[in-house]
Amino acid sequence: MSEAQQDTLVTQDMIDRKGVWGNERVSPPISVSDIRKWAIATYWPEKPPAIYWDEEYARSTQYGGIVAPPDFNPFAWPVERPRRPAGGGGQRGGRGRTGLNGGQTDTYGVPMRPGDVIRSRTRLKEWNEREGRMGLTLYTYTETEWRNQNDELVRTRISIGIRY
Asked: Which domains does the chain have, with CATH numbers?
């Protein structure tokens, strides 16, 4: 291998995309029914907290109305699924093609409420490489940010991808 060819799993596409926000997705307006159904499914078989379905009770709380559970996903039921970029997935085996989910960390801002419209955008935040038991291993950190119609931060997610 010449000096010009470095031993790395980092691609030029990654270098070009680092820190660049991708296209935004926009959710339909969140409904009380969406929140209620999510809460029922999340807490099943237990009864979900009243803040997620009982308007009278919710008005008496610090929020002054129904809010969504923190893990609520307004993008969960799209009419059309976004297309995956070409070359993503499907290839297994070989150097740099074996991938693992390294987990995720969510940080929550303001709660989602009925009527909110959520905007989502994603970027490749950073990466690092190091030698591991399986050889050269690349850790990528993808940041997804959700904001409501008032530009208030709803959620930030950092997802870790691992390739070797």
From this structure: 1-29+96-164 (3.10.129.10), 31-73 (no CATH)
